[in-house]
Every structure is written in C-alpha cells, then in structure tokens.
Amino acid sequence: xPRHRFAAERDLRAAYDGRDRAVITRHDExxxxxxxxxxxxxxxDMIEHLHLEPGAIVFEAGSGGxxxxxxxxxxxxxxxxxxxxxxxxxxxxTRRFLTEVGSGRVTVLEADTALGxxxxxxxxxxxxxxxxxxxxxxxxxxxxEQLAEGGRLVLPLEVGGYTRAVTFERRGHVLHARHFTCxxxxxxxxxxxxxxxxxxxxxxxxxxxxxxxxxxxxxGLEEALRGPRHEAATGVIMGRRTSxxxxxxxxxPPPCPxxxxxxxxxxxxxx
Length: 271
Hints:
The protein is of the alpha/beta class. 18% of the residues lie in helices and 27% in strands. It has 6 helices and 11 strands. Helix 3 (66-75) links the parallel strand 3 and strand 4. The radius of gyration is 20 Å and the shape is globular.
C-alpha cells in the first residue's frame, strides 16, 4: 500500500516516519490538527481487532483514503468499504487519491459521520464491521444500529482526558467491549462534537483541561504553581515499559499529553 500517496503534503521521510507517528495533513485556523494519516501501528492494531473476513463490508467514519484502502485490502476482492467524512476538503482529496491508486472498492461520501451511512449503502443485516478514525466522547446510535449482529466496532473513546481505541462487539442491542488500545486522534467536527474548555497556565508552559464542564478560576492554582516546589515519594515503583497511555497518533506536536510513558508496549497502557 503506497502510504506516501495519501500524504501528498509531506515528504517520504514524514510518510514513513521511523518513529511510527501520524502524518498531519490539515490544520485549522488555530493551528490544531484536524486531519491526518494515522500512525501505521495504530491502523494495524484497529484493523486487526475488527476480525475481518474476506468479502466483509466495512463502514469507516473519517476519510483520508489510506486506512480505507487497507481495509479493502484485508477484505479482498469481494469486500467493500463505505467511508464518510463531514469535511468537503477531505472528501475531495480522498476521492482524488483513490482514483489514482485505489482498488475501486471504496465509496467516499460527504456527510455527518454520526448519522452513519446512507440507507442504500447499508448492507442487509448491517455492516460486518465499523471503524471510527477520530476521537469521540460517545457512541452515535447509527453506528450500533447499522452494525450486523456479532459485528465489531472500533472507535477512539475519550474517558477522563485519555483516549482509548475500544473494540466493541454487538450482541443484540448491547455493545460489549472486547479490547482497548491507548491512542490519540483528531476531534469530532460533526453534530456530536463538544468543546472542552482549557486554561493556559505558567505563561503557556501548562494547559489545564476541564473535561466535564466550564472552565473555573485558576488564580490560586497559578499562585501555588509559582511557589516553592515540594516533592514527596509515593512508594510506587513502575517498570521501565509501564505506561499510562500511548504516543498520540496525530493531534499535537510533541511533547503531547498522550505521549507520556514512552516507550509504550505498542500502545497498550496498563492502568
């Protein structure tokens, strides 16, 4: 799979980064990453846990082309991928790349991904699998409703400030969690998106995020942080390869909050 053809804005060195990081392809007006080609190890991890069979039909929320073509490759000549993205720029870009180097088995749509795929494109009985390629704080009902019985859905779920790519398996009306991998992704831009207020402290050296509400006053905290430093031993000893999270796949320049504990055990944080 020619990964560099889906990262045309960057050079070969960035596309095949030896540190196995994501490739940022677009930023918003504030400089935050809003589109990327995910890190190769994370793409492989998420696809592996979909348990795809030859001929499977897969729903992808969040386009770019590279991941969709990897899915098409795994599902084989009889497989099909329906990829949806809300950003017209991403959709145009993805269609162009797929025309140049694609398999012809990926359909790209411009729509709010939280609504799922258009009804005519949903296979009878539902998709065999689904994968979400941006950070979510909740599971859109359409993703479960359009998933076949026993099908798997992998999505990056934000919990307490950290993101984990959780593998769910549908059994009836319930999604059962089967696996998770610590990761980091760009944020949702659709109707399910939510703003997370944050406050910059210590002249930008520290950022405080308020995951579950409005930002609070930080005058006392700023004063405490600028005061004398005190250290206290916890008595807890952590192994060299123990980490609470994995390297961020794409959203922030290093050092990233999601990159604590490097080197990771291939993204699997032990909590």
